[in-house]
């Protein structure tokens, strides 16, 4: 359990340092179960910080969203560090970006949170629809969520609201952090790919029918890309015009190209935070694509992304005994 | 305005009749959400829905529109694509979404004689008859009443259906609506005073059920003084720059045009774009007048609450709440306007 006082105290201490620009954390949203990313520039701002099972958003994305605009004459670049509150998967995203040299370790201060899993916003909003007042959710020791709505207390088994990705998360503790809030949580889950294996065994035609239905309704809003901490190319292959890899027409063919190309660009890099699927406005099960590749990478190269910042990324290394039977 | 009632049992018959003469569009639930789709069988329609995930602007202002096709080579031929000329009926559109069309009209149809009329939009718009459906139970983020509108507003539709229990109360609003109903008059009966009272109660209950409100009084003038306010930077810090708010919005209408060709054939297409993307304003020179997310977040608010009302005397927001519902980082347009009102300038 994260001690809120401790979180605020530590945030205050870090933001008081001269070498820290701001810290990204969570604060209460504007209604219902909403939580919003918060930016603390001063110790007073840190007072607003909270942490609860509703804090699903992967804040590692804000390390790469930092905009480096052209400097005005006489202006000097602000080289201070950015602080981020990170759960297990968020920290893995940071590790992965550092491996890829997208970020430098010394530019970051990481406040680690041992994560007991997060609530899927869509699930809780479905269970308790139309909540205008802000609602707090806490987790008890019996794997239940305690939800207080208008004076009435609801106890909901954790499994009913837990985000799907959390159900088989092997890395709830941040592998990289400067301060860890509380004790590491025990690892009870093991990664399992039963759903992927099931889909994999179906004939190609069935698989295509399945994905066709999903890709057909993609509106190409690129929320999957923007919410993903590992989609940080300066120019996305979906935006290049010369050559134009993917056309702008929104149709099955181009949508398929977009979704499959994005999945491949995350091969050996995706850290399974589930943000893409969480934000998709048309319910495309994007994690099924990512999980399939994650499983194959594990099987073929015995590799798991985002665990050690000193390690090389999958595509940056070679072993003589790497399997090559997929090369035609 | 003529008032009729239609018993709910007769709805499938009415829809079947309409579908035999018109291309009928209505809300269908698939994959956990509702969208407007072409209806072949009236049983497919889901009227328990409140808002379709993607606004029905997509029926008139299509996400991808082929403007013309061409061939490459020595003799270039340009062909205008054959347009679908069938008359359409859009059944079950919510009053706020219908208002969205009225907001888009000056953009695509012009405001006065001689203004350019976009043929693709205009054709689809003119061929469509709108049968609205009042909202009995508004959603958490509904705030149409903040724009002098109502969950049972008949202002922007041709016919309005209101669920009054066993029956629908039917407001025939326009000539177009009258024409549509004419051949179906056997299905309807005259509305009684009692029916009208129930309709009014339903409307009032729905208005009372709206919990969130946006106070837009004086916002246009206030925004004139807030271009450099730090509210924009603060809000933009958490924006991730996706296009959900603009793509789901019933009034956002920015588009991109592209030539897409394979070997000898090609087409010029028009496709939805979003001012939330840096590429949207990127100049060929490499200069970008809206280089940061701050500029883009600010532009979205200014377009809806400053530029649009200045040009067209109407806010480019219908109060449907989609951008609030689906924003991954809780950027809440009601909250932003409240902050604009509070801000010191």
Q: How would you describe this structure to a colleague?
A:
The complex is a heterodimer of chains A (328) and B (345). With 328 residues, chain A is of the alpha/beta class. Chain A has 2 domains: 4-66 and 79-180, no CATH class; 194-316, no CATH class. In chain A, 33% of the residues lie in helices and 13% in strands. Chain A is built from 13 helices and 8 strands. In chain A, β6 (144-149) and β7 form a beta hairpin. Chain B folds into 2 domains: 2-60 and 73-209, no CATH class; 219-342, no CATH class. Chain B has 12 helices and 12 strands. The longest helix of chain B is centred in the last third of the chain and has 20 residues, at 293-312. The mean pLDDT of chain B is 94. The chains are: A alpha/beta (328), B alpha+beta (345). Chains A and B meet through β2, α10 and α12 of A and α8, α9, β11 and β12 of B.
> What's the alpha carbon Rg of chain A, rounded to whole Å?
21 Å
Return the structural class of chain A. alpha/beta
- Give the proportion of residues in helices of chain B: 25-40%
Number of strands of chain A: 8
Radius of gyration of chain B: 22 Å
Shape of chain B: globular
> Main sheet of chain A?
5 strands, mixed
Number of helices of chain A: 13
Number of strands of chain B: 12
The main sheet of chain B orders its strands as: 3-2-6-7-8-9-1-10
Distance between the termini of chain A: 51 Å
What labels would you give this structure?
heterodimer, A: 328 residues, alpha/beta, five-stranded mixed beta sheet, three-stranded antiparallel beta sheet, 13 helices, B: 345 residues, alpha+beta, 2 domains, four-stranded antiparallel beta sheet, 12 helices, 12 strands, 34% helix
Describe the secondary-structure layout.
The complex is a heterodimer of chains A (328) and B (345).
Chain A: H1 4-15, E1 20-28, E2 35-40, H2 43-46, H3 61-64, E3 81-86, H4 88-99, E4 108-112, H5 121-127, E5 137-139, E6 144-149, E7 152-157, H6 158-161, H7 164-167, E8 179-180, H8 194-200, H9 204-216, H10 223-227, H11 252-265, H12 275-279, H13 286-301
Parallel strand pairs in A: 1-3, 3-4, 4-8
Antiparallel strand pairs in A: 1-2, 5-6, 6-7
Chain B: E1 2-7, H1 11-21, E2 23-30, E3 33-38, H2 57-60, E4 64-71, E5 78-79, E6 88-93, H3 95-109, H4 119-127, E7 128-133, E8 159-163, E9 167-172, H5 175-182, E10 188-190, H6 193-209, H7 219-224, H8 230-238, H9 244-248, E11 255-262, E12 265-272, H10 293-312, H11 322-326, H12 333-342
Helix pairs in contact in B: 3-4, 8-10
């Amino acid at each position: 359990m994260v001690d809120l006082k401790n979180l605020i105290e530590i945030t205050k201490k870090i933001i008081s340092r001269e070498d820290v620009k701001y810290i990204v954390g969570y604060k209460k949203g504007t209604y219902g179960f909403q939580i919003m990313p918060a930016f603390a520039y001063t110790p007073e701002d840190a007072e607003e910080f909270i942490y609860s099972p509703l804090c699903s958003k992967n804040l590692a994305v804000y390390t790469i969203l930092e905009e480096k605009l052209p400097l005005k004459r006489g202006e000097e670049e602000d080289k201070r560090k950015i602080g981020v509150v990170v759960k297990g998967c968020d920290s893995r995203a940071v590790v992965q970006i550092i491996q890829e040299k997208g970020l430098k370790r010394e530019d970051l201060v990481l406040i680690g949170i041992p994560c007991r899993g997060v609530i899927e916003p869509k699930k809780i909003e479905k269970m308790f629809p139309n909540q205008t007042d802000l609602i707090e959710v806490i987790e008890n020791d019996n794997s239940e969520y305690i939800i207080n709505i208008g004076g009435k207390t609801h106890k909901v088994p954790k499994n009913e609201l837990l985000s799907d990705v959390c159900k088989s998360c092997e890395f709830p503790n941040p592998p990289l952090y400067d301060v860890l809030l509380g004790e590491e949580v025990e690892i009870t889950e093991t990664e399992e790919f039963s759903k992927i294996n099931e889909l994999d065994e179906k004939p190609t035609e069935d698989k295509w029918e399945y994905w066709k239905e999903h890709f057909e309704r993609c509106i190409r809003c690129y929320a999957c890309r923007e919410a993903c901490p590992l989609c940080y190319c300066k120019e996305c292959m979906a935006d290049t015009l010369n050559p134009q890899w993917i056309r702008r027409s929104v149709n099955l063919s181009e949508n398929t190209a977009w979704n499959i190309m994005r999945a491949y660009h995350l091969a050996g890099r995706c850290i399974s935070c589930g943000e893409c699927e969480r934000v998709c406005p048309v319910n495309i099960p994007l994690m099924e694509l990512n999980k399939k590749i994650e499983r194959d990478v594990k099987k073929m190269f015995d590799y798991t992304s985002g665990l050690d910042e000193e390690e090389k990324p999958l595509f940056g290394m070679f072993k003589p005994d790497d399997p090559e039977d997929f090369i035609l | 305005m003529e008032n009729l009632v239609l018993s709910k049992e007769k709805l499938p018959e009415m829809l079947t009749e309409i579908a035999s003469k018109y291309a009928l569009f209505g809300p269908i639930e698939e994959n956990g959400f509702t969208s407007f789709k072409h209806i072949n069988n009236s049983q497919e329609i889901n009227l328990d829905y409140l808002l379709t995930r993607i606004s029905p602007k997509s029926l008139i202002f299509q996400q991808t529109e082929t403007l013309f096709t061409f061939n490459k080579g020595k003799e270039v031929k340009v062909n205008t694509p054959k347009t679908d000329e069938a008359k359409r009926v859009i059944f079950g559109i919510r009053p706020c979404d219908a208002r969205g069309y009225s907001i888009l009209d000056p953009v695509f149809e012009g405001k006065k004689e001689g203004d350019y009329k976009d043929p693709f939009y205009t054709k689809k718009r003119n061929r469509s008859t709108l049968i609205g459906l009042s909202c009995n139970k508004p959603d958490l983020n509904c705030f149409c009443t903040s724009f002098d509108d109502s969950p049972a507003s008949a202002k922007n539709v041709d016919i309005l259906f209101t669920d009054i229990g066993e029956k629908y109360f039917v407001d025939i609003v326009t000539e177009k609506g009258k024409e549509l109903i004419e051949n179906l008059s056997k299905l309807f009966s005259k509305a009684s005073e009692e029916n009208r009272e129930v309709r009014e109660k339903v409307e009032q209950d729905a208005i009372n059920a709206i919990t969130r409100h946006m106070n837009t009084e004086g916002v246009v003038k206030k925004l004139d003084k807030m271009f450099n306010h730090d509210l924009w930077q603060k809000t933009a810090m958490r924006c991730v720059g996706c296009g959900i708010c603009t793509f789901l919005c019933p009034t956002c209408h920015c588009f991109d045009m592209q030539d897409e060709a394979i070997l000898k054939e090609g087409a010029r297409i028009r496709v939805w774009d979003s001012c939330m993307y840096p590429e949207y304003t990127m100049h060929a020179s490499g200069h970008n007048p809206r280089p940061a997310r701050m500029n883009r977040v600010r532009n979205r608010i200014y377009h809806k609450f400053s530029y649009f009302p200045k040009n067209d005397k109407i806010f480019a927001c219908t109060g449907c709440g989609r951008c609030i519902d689906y924003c991954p980082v809780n950027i809440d347009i009601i909250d932003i306007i409240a902050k604009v009102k509070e801000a010191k300038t």
